[in-house]
User: Fold RING-type E3 ubiquitin transferase from Pomacea canaliculata.
Amino acid sequence: MSATMAELPSINCSSISSTYESSSGSDGSYPSRRNKVEGYDYEFVPTPDARYECTICLLVLREPRQTPCGHRFCRDCIIKWIRESQQRCPVDNEPFEEKDLFADNFAKREIQNFNVKCPNSKQGCDTITSVKQLQAHQRECPFGLAPCPNRCSNVLFKRDLAEHVQHLCELRNVQCPNCGATFLSRDAWTHVEVCPKRQVKCHFCEEEMEMQAMAEHEATVCPRKTLHCAFHTLGCNAEMERCNEKTHLQDNLQEHMLLLCNGLTTIMHVLGIQRLSPESSTSTTRGLVPTETSGLLSGLALSLQQLSLGKLPRMSLDSQTLKQQLPRLPVPGSSFVDSHAQTHEESAGPISFYRSPSDPKNSLMGSAVSIGTQEASVLSHTSGHSNSSGVGGFQSLPSASSEDFESLKARNVTQDASLAMHDQCLIELQAKAKRCDQLNQELKQKVKQLEAQISDFESRVCSGQFFWRIRNYSKLLRDAEHGAMTALHSQPFYTSASMGYKICIRANLNGVDSAKGSHLSLFVHFMQGEYDDLLDWPFSGKIILSVIDQNERCEMRHHVSETLVAKPNLAAFQKPSTPRNHKGFGYMEFLPLSSVKGSSFIRNDTLIIKAQVLPNC
Assistant:
């Protein structure tokens, strides 16, 4: 395949872009192929004869071409010479045309058998091989440079790549020996700080344990953790270590009793209780040792705290409701003659005091809650009787009116009816929403059809001169650099409004193959069109590709253009057998990326590519 090149107007490019027939499959991949624009710049062993040198680039001939006057040149060198001069031989100035050139296969075979040193000889490779086998050697040469497959910033010798990937690369995956989590090597220290299985010491008792157990240890077990007194909400401001909490409760029983008395008075005031009889006051704690009594007081203090914070359910003054909320427990030393109280007493079961050896506070709290329940039960039972003297020592407790209950019942009925109406409305709204979704889907389908018709109309009115705007160029270039989207395809267009070829442009913003990372690559692909059966195949003519300079000053605009001359023998110009021809034709090295970045080729983060198709009549 001969190269197709054109002059770059107003742009002084150090390298010449060569045409390239590419295979563009569904995965956007391309075959690996390097196209050189000059001769072989290798260290030959021995040095070849001067007749194998190109008189233009002064290197050993690559793809030698012979002129009618018998001189040999590199294929790309002589084509560039012809197009930039007056089509004369650079040696004897004899006139000839590009079509007069022919391949010198004899010289090519001889050159392919020349021995050369590996290009990595300066790095230590001592291999000497033939030119035709050099490319295969370079793929395996241990002294060749290769980027890290983990995409870190290192470029290493291939021989050192495995060691780097397994043990040195900061982007390699490593596993935590404690919890088994997988993370990048560079994040190892960050993971150590949060690893749930890491062994740490308690800040208070210095006991060693896993970090995930530390919070529970400090909250429930640690003997050196500083705590507030259980009566803190009632006014006790003492602080002590958990191991000294039991001693504090025993030593300050009298002070806690006074604090609790004030709290109990507050509860009685809220419940409307006038006073307690001496019998009921002493019966609940009869037979308890001081430690147990302290526990009961502590539990009641906790209940008072919850009451003050609004955490306990609001108590109704209705006697029946009180009996349901606070079940009555038997109180040592007291008796009740009411049959309902006896029945409730049997269902509640006897009171029990449990003291856990691991946490005295929990046992004391449980006992206190039981005693508090007893008092509430006494209140519930007493409020159910109308006699002024009462039972269990309570003077009186007002009962709620039955009118409140009837009012609540009527309100519930109204709310049920309202909820039923809302449910019906919800069902109707869901049906309407479903219908709206169906209509939206139908409208979306119609919009897609209209967009397709508009796109087809636009592709026909361009008359072979198509402008492709690539918006969000910066983001698309980053995606191409990261391998997310290496190839972009334009919308298709026709070369004529009445009857023309259907074509699209492919752009590799970060280049392809040997031009990857250094040049913008542009190709054209023929597509199946409406008039393919009426057109002449293969396509013959010219296609001019241009990158538009968007400088605000017209006189400063210098567009970069290349002309593709169709080659009927290539698959890229044959009648497409698929919706888009897999073979494309164009330039791998159309424009250096360094010339695009920060230049007037990009404006408003948009790159404009122009294609002008000139079919042969």
Summary: The CA atoms of residues 500 and 535 lie 7 Å apart. The first strand starts at residue 19 and ends at 23. Residues 50-143 form a domain with the Herpes Virus-1 fold (CATH 3.30.40.10).
